Each structure stands twice: as structure tokens, then as C-alpha cells.
Amino acid sequence: MTVMGEQSSPSSVSSGCGKTLTLHSGTYTTTVNGQQRQYTLTLPQGYNPSEPYKLIFGYHWLGGTMQDVVSGSYYGIQPLAGNSAVFVAPQGLNNGWGNSGGEDITFTDQMLSTLEDALCIDKTQVYSMGWSYGGAMSYALACARPNVFRAVAVMSGANLSGCSPGTQPVAYYAQHGVSDSVLPFTLGEQIRDTFVKDNACTATNPPAPAAGSGTHIKTEYSGCSSGHPVWWVAFDGPHEPLATDAGASSSWTPGQIWSFFSQFSLFKYASEIFKEVLMGVERMENLGILAIWSLNTLYL
Fold first, then answer.
1. What does DSSP say about strands 216-220 and 151-155: parallel, antiparallel, or unpaired?
2. I want to staple 78 with a disulfide (CB 3.0 to 4.6 A). Which of 74, 86, 167, 197 is the partner?
3. Residues 237-260: pLDDT tens digits?
């Protein structure tokens, strides 16, 4: 569901808008390069086929499953979405995202095609997120499909699923633990810097919390090209998806990712309101000109 009052332009909505619902929440199978692939689809409550929704992919970690992502409420993002998004949890081959020959990119392309044909999706609001291997896959999608994904969120990721070509800007969120012994902190920094460069951000050396501090530090890069922010969160912790500060009862991760993603729908809403205001001003100016012309005609 879009922001109240927001209208998506015809070119930005999928062909599934207005169609009778044929896909429902559940698990689906598709054939990709001769292999059976599966994904789980979660529709928002009260799905309206005439309302364009965000589309959010959640990729599992090595050894994880699509059901793990679903049962974890898509890394805790689903409750924050407030029925504004369609969620998808794909299943990796051998419970990973090796992306051999780009097969997992192709799988994602096929899911996108199916979902956009059957559901009402705002094509300017497509996102990907994942932890560990799932983060690597989200990074690979940012590299390979920069004109499809509005933003990605990479939790404790690395370059494991490839990055081709990786030369165009994409809004990029990433977080990494300073004590990560599975995918060391420096690997997260390396892939972050791909988009610091591609997004034309001002290169910097962001601060990181000391080990044992129980804190996190967020850096929002400056100078990035319009619409392509980079957020980097370094946290005191190991290889984990839902980092929590010392003494806190819940993780700050879902809120940070949702804040990062949702800024783009709010930006779009504000832009369209501004356009409406300009159109209103133009209409008022035209009415003023017409009124002056009418008076001149009347008294001449």
C-alpha cells in the first residue's frame, strides 16, 4: 500500500494492477535453467489489486531456508511495513546463494516477472535484504540490477555471490559486527566501498565501536548522488543479523532498515505533492491571465 494520498504514475506500476488475484500467500515452484526453484510469498492483509505495493525480497543465510526468513518476519521488517508491502522469501540451491553463472540473478528475474504480472507492484519500490550469504546475494543484485532495485540492505555480507557489473549507483544500507569471525569486518567494508564509489559519496573512514562497548555507530555518507544514500552501521558484536545494544531488550536492526527503505516512498510522495502544488500554481496563474483578458475584453 502506498502512502495515503500517493498516486503512482502508470509507467511505475506493474501489469498486475487491477487484475483478479491469482497468487496468494504460500509457497510456489518455478523452473529456472532446468532446475526446480521455490519461493514463499506473503501478501499484506487486505491486499487491494488496485493499490501499488512495495516488493521486498528477503534472502536467507547459508544453511537457512525461506521458511526461516518467513518465521522471522522477514528479519523483523514485516511488522513495521504496516501492510504496505508484498514480501518474498526465495530458497537458495543447497541452502546458499552461489549464483553460479548468474543462476540466482536469473531466478530473481523470473520471480519479479511472475509477481509483477500477477500483483499490483510499485516498480519504483523494489527492495532486497539478507544476512550473511543472503546479504551477499542482495549485494549481487545491487551490482547486477541497479535499475530494478531501489535499495538493498546487507547484513554482515561479503562478495560471495559475485558483483557484475557493479558500476551503477544503488541506495545501499549495510551493517557489520566488529568481532565477526565468520565474515570479517573488513569484507563488509570492501563491498560497502563499491557503492560509496558508485554513488559518488565522499570517501571517509567511518568510526566503529570498541569491542565490548555494547554499542553501534551509524554513518550516513555525505556527497552521494541524489537518491543514492549509503548508510553504514558498525556494531559491537559477532556474526549476527539482529544486533542488539547492551542492556536493550530488542534489536535496532529492523528499525534502521525500515527507515532506510521507507525514506524512498516518502521522498516520492513529497515529490509528487510538490508537482501537484506547481500544477496548482500554474492553474491559478492561467486563471488570473484569463480573468484579466476577460476584463479587458469587457471594457474595451
1. unpaired
2. 74
3. 999 999 999 999 999 999 999 999
- Can you list the domains of the chain with their CATH numbers? 10-272 (3.40.50.1820)
Question: What does the pLDDT look like over 87-122, one tens digit per residue?
Answer: 999 999 999 999 999 999 999 999 999 999 999 999
Q: How far apart are CA 270 and CA 255, in angstroms?
A: 21
> What string of DSSP letters covers 223-291?
SPPTT--EEEEEESSSS-SS---TT-SS-SHHHHHHHHHHHHHHHHHHHHHHHHHHHHHHHHHHHHHHH
pTM: 0.87
